[in-house]
Every structure is written in C-alpha cells, then in structure tokens.
Design brief:
Strand order of the largest sheet: 4-5-3-6-7-2-1-8
Strand content: 15-25%
CATH superfamily: Leucine Aminopeptidase, subunit E, domain 1
Number of strands: 8
Number of domains: 1
Bound molecules: ligand AR6
Shape: globular
Distance between the termini: 9 Å
CATH topology: Leucine Aminopeptidase, subunit E, domain 1
Structural class: alpha/beta
CATH class: Alpha Beta
Helix content: 25-40%
C-alpha cells in the first residue's frame, strides 16, 4: 500500500478485489458495448447481479476514453462508473487511457461523490504495460483534482502483489515531480 495527499485528497494504492470496496463508486474496465466481458468487468457484473446488465443495456455503449455511470445494485459501492480504456498499441493509447481516468473522476465530481476506487484500466486483456499505466493514471487523477470538488479518497485497487508493487514504484516516480504532493500513512 502507498498513500499520497494532494489538494486534501487521499490517493492510495491497495491490493484487493474491487468488487468488495466500500466506496461511493467503483470504476469498471469495460468495453465499448458496456454489456459485460471478462476480467474485472465480469467480476463486477457477477457481484452486482443481473440488474446491472439491464441498466447497461439502456446506455447504448460508450466510446473509448469515455465513461458512463450506473447504480451498483448488490455491490457495496453505490455506483459503478464504466470506463473504456484503449487496447495497448492503438492510436493515441496514452491519451485515451488518461481520458478514461479523467472522465471517470469528472463523473464522480459531477455527482458530488466523496470516494472512488479504480482498477488498473487496460492492463489486463487490453495489454497495457502496468508500469506505463501507473504513471499515466496518477498524472490524470492529479490533473482533475486541481478544480473544486467533493472527492476525499481516490483508491487504486490492484489485483496482485506484483501489480501493486509496480503501481507503487510508478506513483513514487510521478510524485517526485510534484511539489504539492505529500506522502501519508
Ligand atoms: N479487482 C481488481 N482488479 C482486477 C479484478 C478485480 N476483481 N479482476 C481483474 N483485475 P481487465 P482491461 C485487474 O482485463 O485490460 C473485459 O473483458 C487485472 O489484473 O479486467 O481494461 C472488458 O469487457 C488487470 O490488472 O481489463 C473488456 O473487453 C486490470 O484489472 C476488456 O476486458 C484490468 O484488466 C478490458 O480490458
């Protein structure tokens, strides 16, 4: 686990399963259909129950780099923000990955949420190297948190100890470039 403070917001990394997180919203690493899939998407749909898919069917999909909100149904989280990351190697993949984080956080801010948990979007089936994704995700989150907002906690939930270690290393490297980020317990 690692923890940083930026503009009153706690930004932390933990190892775990995102479906068990008690936060206002968890983010799903979805695909453009928003109709479910494998990886974290499959786990979220299984844990939330069939009503989640029913609501997703009303959304008419989602463009890569963007995100859409649903309720969380049987999840501890009140909402799911379905974000579509890029497939590694596609044009503009770094910008699209940053947009997926940015747009997810913007939805949370617009709904006046206080806590949000992200998986490592695009780093599974979509093949994004975790070390690159870690750096992009922290920079994207920080760039959103300059504005006025209600967010108190941004948690990154990594599925394996290896992914957690790589995220921690990437976050430490990025944090060194910002004077206004401090470490916390
Ligand atoms: N909690 C936290 N992280 C998880 C969990 C979990 N329960 N399960 C997997 N991960 P992926 P993508 C990690 O493949 O690369 C789906 O089919 C996993 O180890 O879920 O964005 C969608 O429908 C990895 O680090 O998402 C799309 O078609 C990270 O979550 C496609 O996969 C993301 O892996 C999206 O691919």
């Amino acid at each position: 686990m690692s923890c940083y403070k930026f503009n009153q917001v706690r930004i932390e990394t933990v190892q775990g399963d995102i479906t068990t997180q008690s936060v206002d919203a968890i983010v799903n690493a979805a695909n453009t259909s928003l109709l479910g899939g494998g990886g974290v998407d499959g786990a979220i749909h299984r844990a939330a129950g069939p009503e989640l898919l029913a609501e997703c069917r009303t959304l008419r999909g989602c463009v890569t780099g963007e995100a859409k909100l649903t309720r969380g149904y049987l999840l501890p989280a009140q909402y799911v923000i379905h974000a579509v990351g890029p497939i590694y190697g596609q044009d503009d993949a770094p910008d699209l990955l940053a947009s997926a984080y940015h747009n997810s956080l913007q939805i949370a801010i617009n709904h006046k949420l206080r806590s949000i948990a992200f998986p490592a979007i695009s780093t599974g089936i979509y093949g994004y190297p975790i070390n690159e994704a870690a750096r992009i995700s922290l920079r994207a989150v920080i760039s959103c948190l300059h504005q006025s907002h209600t967010i108190e906690l941004v948690r990154f939930v990594l599925f394996t100890s290896e992914a957690l270690a790589i995220f921690n290393e990437g976050f430490a490297a990025v944090a060194r470039n910002y004077d206004d980020i401090t470490t916390c317990l």
